[in-house]
Amino acid sequence: MFLARPISTIAGIASPAKEIAVSAQLPQRLLRRWRALFALVALALGAVAPVSAAWVTTPWAPEAGEVFDIVPHANAPTQGILVGGAEFFGSGTLGKGIVRLNAATLAQDTGFTASVTQGANAGEVHAIAVQSDGKIVIGGRFDAVNGVARSNIARLNVDGTLDATYTASVTAGSEGILTMVMQPDNSVLIGGGFTQVNSTARDYLARLTPAGALDAGFSNPALDNQVRTLALQPDGAVLAGGFFNVAHGQPRDALVRLTANGSLDTTFANPAITGWVNALYLQPNGQLLVGGSLGTIVGAAREGLARLNANGTLDAGFTVDADGSVHDIVSADASRVVIVGGFENVAGTPLRRVARINYSTGALDPTLTDVGVLNAGFITYTAFSRSPTDVLIGGWFALVDGQSRSNLAQIVEQAGAPLAPSITQTQGLNSGAMVTVAAPADTGSGPVTGYNVTCTPMGPGAPVTASGLSPVALTGMVNGTPYQCVARAVNAAGAGPASAPAMVTPTADGGVVPVPTLSIGALVGLALGCGALMGWRRGRAIRS
After folding, report:
1. 398 — alpha (psi -120 to 50), left (phi > 0) or beta?
2. Listing from the earlier edge strand, what are the strands of the sheet with 124-130?
3. Which of 173, 215, 272, 451 gives 20 to 30 Å between its CA and that of 5?
4. Nearest to residue 124, comparing CAs of 396, 475, 433?
5. Along the chain (544 residues), what's the average pLDDT of each consecutive run of 10 residues?
């Protein structure tokens, strides 16, 4: 939701009624011209006013190893969200490989006690698929579930106990299972780095019956490398993306469509992708969003993200590029998707590891602002959109929106809050610091009333926080220790997202560190000043 702002508050322009009262002595012709000029300026400002809403992380801060998959579990007693990954830590019951969260509160469901291991260590759950009866098929890299031998695939009951009747096995491959899709009849498609299923040759892609037997009616596609993502069409056709270049002996570079029985669908063109595919999203109209580490598609440059038509040809009109890999594409609502990955910019806009695309228009959706997923591996592997204003993200990261988050986080829209400000200067003081902050371009539904600044030591020690008008003074810091600082602008609606980080080191004698950034206003002022100086010099040269 966005709060409409009266024109009198846009960009700090005073109320036109007040200005007209002050100008009552002006000639009527001049006054009419002034009114027309004001209307044009207001219209222009309205046309370019940011339409973004501030997105921030919430206090929810579980601790996890790498997170690979997040899916809903509607059959849980209190509704649930399943999270697959490595080891999960923190309060509550420790989890290995998979945990279930309460869908409403995000608290860990301690009644769900599945434990996935690999030798003496935690195993990895890379893919989760839920049957219509609520049973859960998990795939990844592991050799035991709840202490019972299982090779990279298992089925859990609704409460997380092992379903002993499901004894499928996936072997002969170091990566195990990387992706799964549940079919309406509870057969499950599996893809990954394996070459054997239930001791029968199957190259990187197979289908299992609801009982866990290999489905002989789905032929071996004879791929030559990993499958990393799968999508199921309404007609039963199977889309597979990954590292491969061959399917059924035919060239198929990183993406292939198979019929419902696993044979090659020759009506879907070879997209000739250079790179590999990590994510697929089938639009309602049959077009296909493709995410990955892309270079070209049928010779056309596409980076990170592309769209294909229903026959596999490139949609040349869709040109939303990401400057890094895209790892997952999930539905946000009827016309938008959330993409996550290792990128820093999407369509030329700074968006670190999370962005939203309006696929109905084929454009970036600017209403999801940068949440700054940083540190560690810098990669967001998976996401689950609880609503258009509430998204869970998982991957390999340590910071989200300037806050410490261990590989799993919640980001939400803070309606009416200002966007991120910028830190223009830091000064180390004796056991403290002074941080100068510039206001954001969009102050949200009201004026900025102050700034919250957090400085985190780059090493042992606790973060230090302070609030107030700029410059903000912080105390209780350790001399000689570098700190990374972020600032948030605050208005009546709350605090917005964090600024880009800036460094400061407290010292006994102090020291100023200017941050090398310029606001648009400063750049305009600099350009005007340079232009005036050049004009003055040119005038002198002509006169001389």
Report:
1. alpha
2. 124-130, 136-141, 153-156
3. 451
4. 396
5. 27 30 35 34 33 75 89 87 86 75 90 90 94 97 96 96 97 88 98 96 97 97 97 98 98 98 97 97 96 96 96 96 96 93 93 92 88 72 90 91 88 88 96 96 92 93 95 96 95 91 90 54 41 39 35
**Closest to 392 (Cα-Cα) out of 54, 52, 62, 51:** 62
Pair of tokens at residue 519: 């606001």
Q: What does R_g of the chain's alpha carbons equal in angstroms?
A: 28
CB atoms within 10 A of CB 540: 9
CA angle 92, 98, 99 (to 5 degrees): 35
Burial class (CB in 10 A: 0-12, 13-18, 19+), 338: buried
Taking the C-alpha atoms of residue 110 and residue 131, their distance in angstroms, rounded to an integer, is 22
Q: Could you give the CA distance from residue 535 to residue 97 in angstroms, rounded to a whole number?
A: 68
Task: List Cα–Cα distances, 79 to 105, 403, 409, in angstroms.
Answer: 10, 28, 19
DSSP letters spanning 79-118: -EEEEEEEEEESSSS-EEEEEEEETTT--B-TT---BEEE
CA distance 534 to 544: 15
Phi and psi at residue 304, in whole multiples of 5°? 80, -45
Q: What is the pLDDT of residue 197?
A: 96
Q: Would you kindly state where each structural domain of the chain is located, as residue ranges?
A: 1-42, 422-523
Confidence at residue 149, expressed as pLDDT on a 0 to 100 scale: 97
Give the whole-angstrom CA distance, residue 394 versus residue 400.
11
Q: What is the pTM of this model?
A: 0.78
CB count within 10 Å of CB 97 equals 28
Task: Note the CATH number of domain 422-523.
Answer: 2.60.40.10
Nearest to 376 by CA among 355, 356, 404: 404
